[in-house]
Amino acid sequence: MSQSYVSAEQLCADLRALYAANGYRQYKMSKFEEYDYYVRNKDFLISDSVITFTDTNGKLMALKPDVTLSIVKNSRDMRGGVQKMYYGENVYRVSGGAHEFREIVQLGLECIGDIDDYCVLEVLTLAAKSLRAISPSSVLCVSQLDILSGSLMGVQIDVHEEILRCIGEKNAHEMRRICEAAGIADRADRLCELMNCYGAPGDVLPKLEAMFGRTHTVVRLSRIMEAMEKAGLGDMIRIDFSVVNDVKFYNGIVFKGYVEGVPQGVISGGQYDGLMRKLGRRSGALGFAIYTDMLERLFEGAGEYDADVLLLYSEADDLAAVQRAVQTLQSDGSSVVAQRIAPDKLRCRRTAKIAEGGVSFVDG
Questions:
Q1: Structural domain range at position 33
Q2: 298 and 317 housed in the same domain
Q3: Count of domains in the chain?
Q4: Dist CA 88 CA 109 (whole Å)
């Protein structure tokens, strides 16, 4: 399913089919929620700018800037099982590219319940396949926050977050300064070593074992990476500890997906048990979102042609003959646009016209 997509809608249709084939059910939500719900959880949002309005009952409402929060709010705790949901929804937030409010198609999935290693593998696999559907030139960067957090055990949360910020920016100098000021200068070398851990799983996992031994977390990560390799996805996976998310919400596996030609990540996801606890849920959770506004330059460049064939007809042509001509041209999978006059900016591979007994191409 690797091809060039000309629209977010076309991409969403294929990815919805992929998720449904793996047992994920579609989640539909209202266009808005109570504003207070987003305020209480604004740190989880990409942007804390939210469009608001006052409902007829006087409540302050918000046009949804995110889907995950709504899914968590309406999910239920499960023991011994998981709820698997996918979505394709319009959200309203400040676009990273335009720096203004946009209506954006957000596509993704969530897995909520008793999360095990297979759940993690499945979500990572679907994220990787989603990237490949967008572009064959893509990379999924995977990190393990529990390994990073273990190296910061006992450190105050504000210092913890500052160090993770430096790791995300690959700013070793600033990280060493923060460690020294916090009295943990002895951990700086190990943190720098982790920060520079980047590469194919086969190259990075032996380094992790040398640093930490065969701990439960390292072994679990190795099992998942081995399964990704066997699924034929190993060439696009990179272990990258500079992929970090807010530790108040995220834990375990986190990841970002990149495609050639787009400077920012187009997929972001991971385990977010912390958000579940904040909202009073006992279940675990993980998922990812695809932000199609990041893909607009790909959509713009992908559609070299608006249709395969332009079929020109006249008012004198028999209507049934025009219809038969369209169907004939479509029989090999071609897209056909029928017009009396060729539009100025319409781009088609070939041009045809109605002829006796069928159609003839006017461009050879």
A1: 1-131+260-304
A2: no
A3: 3
A4: 9
Identify whether residues 127 and 268 lie together within a single domain: yes
Same domain (yes/no): 228, 265: no
Is 255 inside a domain boundary? no
Are 279 and 258 in contact, with CB atoms under 8 Å apart? no
d(CA 18, CA 35): 33
DSSP 24: P
Judgement on whether residues 295 and 310 belong to the same structural domain of the protein: no
Per-residue pLDDT of the chain (364 residues; tens, 9 = 90+): 444 555 667 788 889 999 999 999 998 877 777 888 877 877 777 666 788 888 888 888 888 878 888 888 888 887 788 999 999 888 877 765 556 787 778 889 999 999 999 999 999 999 999 999 888 899 999 999 999 988 898 888 889 889 999 999 999 999 999 999 999 999 999 999 999 999 999 999 999 999 999 999 999 999 999 999 999 999 999 999 999 887 778 899 999 999 988 888 899 999 999 889 888 889 999 999 998 777 766 665 555 677 889 999 999 999 999 999 999 999 988 889 999 998 888 888 899 998 887 888 987 5
